[in-house]
Amino acid sequence: MSNPSLAPEPIRRLLSLDVARGITIAFMIMVNNNGGPGSWHFMNHAQWNGLTPTDLVFPTFVFVVGVSVVFATEARLARGDTRKKLAWHTLQRAVILFLLGVIVNSFPFFELVHMRFYGVLQRIAVCYLAVGLFYLWDKRVWTKVAALVAALVGYWVLLRWVSVPGAGMPGRDIPFMDMTQNLVSWIDRQILPYHLYLDPPLHNVRDPEGLLSNLPAIGTALLGVLTGLWLRSGKAISAKAQGLAAGAVMCLTLGYLWSLWFPLNKNMWTSSFVLVAGGYSLCLLTLAFWAVEKQGWRKGWTWPWLVFGSNAIAAYMFSELFSSTLGAIRFTASGGLTFTSNEHLESIQPYLFHHIFAHIPDPGWAAFAYAVSYTAVCLIPVWILYRKKIFVKV
Q: What DSSP element (H or E) covers 223?
């Protein structure tokens, strides 16, 4: 006879996970619209090696996707859905996410000549597809740990000991982790020349969401799956919170130690970055879990995060498309407005900043005020959806 104390909890929506997701997407919108060059250092990505809080936003969202896979899959299986049906839905959702990412990259003019096919939603789609199908096929913890180790160590081996065609061996012929001469960038230049994020300004060099770096990104999602399995266990809430905190300490320790040989780098999503970012993601989830599930603090402060977290993809899509729209509304020489991709004309975004927020004397606070205001505007449509109990499912 099974021990009831070891049985998984009844399947329910984890409010603390929605809070963590909401905090992440709100900060993502802020840093993507940070007010420009006057913004504080922590509101910008590290130029190459290194880490800022902004670099943690995207991996935290991928981590949350991994956690959500466990809860969503178990909920649907409990309702009677078959594994075949779930696998088909996982594939469909990944394709839709990928296509939405292409729309975000190309909106509003959709210029094919330099259309970017890599991107944020595209990477989420790949990670979601990989861990979603993996979890459906096998729910054991040790297989997830083995896949995580294989992904992180394998990526390190590829970047450190595989020669870059036409350049040489990293650490011998070229610097290890060179900004342009590395295996990740070389592969992307062969597959999608002139369709990369930093092209054409840097003439077909690299993309921060390139093909090979999806491998360690899947590792980030696997960390989320392992976390979801832990949260779905029959442990007491206090024990779960302690386990999350212990996992955070372990990931941070291993990640920072590994970074001595394999630098932290969000652009290449290095294996050390996966562990350190995963550690900070666990810190955020630990705090949310302790406050919401352990302490029962569910009113008031959770509201904006629940609004954002319950429609995270919709919030992200609106923020990106709205920003692209504002960027395409430009002033003509006569002072009128036109809808164009001509970058020689001033767009409405810097106009709004200079006429409203630039009056704040400190440039850092001015940029921060712009970022907060923009995020508040993006809250409005998802708040309307939230009030009407409409939750957009891809």
A: helix 214-231
Q: CA-to-CA distance for 17 and 284, rounded, in angstroms?
A: 10
Between CA 167 and CA 304 the distance in angstroms is 50
Selection from 202, 214, 194 nearest residue 129 by Cα: 214
| Residue 129 CB partners (closer than 8 Å, separation 6+) | 90, 91, 94
Considering only CA atoms, which of 206, 215, 209, 211 is closest in space to residue 155?
Answer: 215
Name which of 385, 393, 227 is nearest 306 in CA terms. Answer: 385
**Which value, to the nearest 10 degrees, does the dihedral of the CA atoms of residues 346, 350, 355, 356 take?**
160
The span from the CA of 266 to the CA of 279, in Å, is 14
Strand 337-339 vs strand 329-331: parallel, antiparallel, or unpaired? antiparallel
Whole-Å CA distances, 360 to 38, 43, 130, 369: 12, 18, 47, 9
How far does CA 93 lie from the centroid of its chain? 17
Contacts of 79 (CB under 8 A, 6+ apart): none
CA–CA distance, 285 with 288 (Å, rounded to integer): 5
- Choice between 152 and 9, residue whose per-residue pLDDT is larger: 152
Instruction: Tell whether pTM > 0.70.
Output: yes
Phi, psi of 166 (to 5 degrees): 80, -5
Residue type at position 383: W
Structure-token pair, residue 267 = 């652009």
Distance in angstroms (rounded) separating the CA atoms of residues 354 and 358: 5
CA 388/CA 179 separation, integer angstroms? 47
* The pLDDT of residue 91 is above 60: yes
Diameter of the chain measured on Cα atoms: 82
Q: Find the length of the chain.
A: 394
pLDDT digits (tens, 9 = 90+) for 224-235: 999 999 999 989
- In this structure, the dihedral spanned by the alpha carbons of residues 66, 67, 73 and 79, taken in order and rounded to 10 degrees, is -160
**What DSSP designation does 10 have?**
P
Q: Which two tokens stand for residue 144?
A: 């997830």
CA dihedral in degrees (286, 292, 297, 299; nearest 10)?
130
Q: What is the CA radius of gyration of the chain?
A: 22
Write out the E strands in 196-295.
none
Of 24, 103, 26, nearest in space to 377 by CA: 26
Mean pLDDT for 241-263 is 97
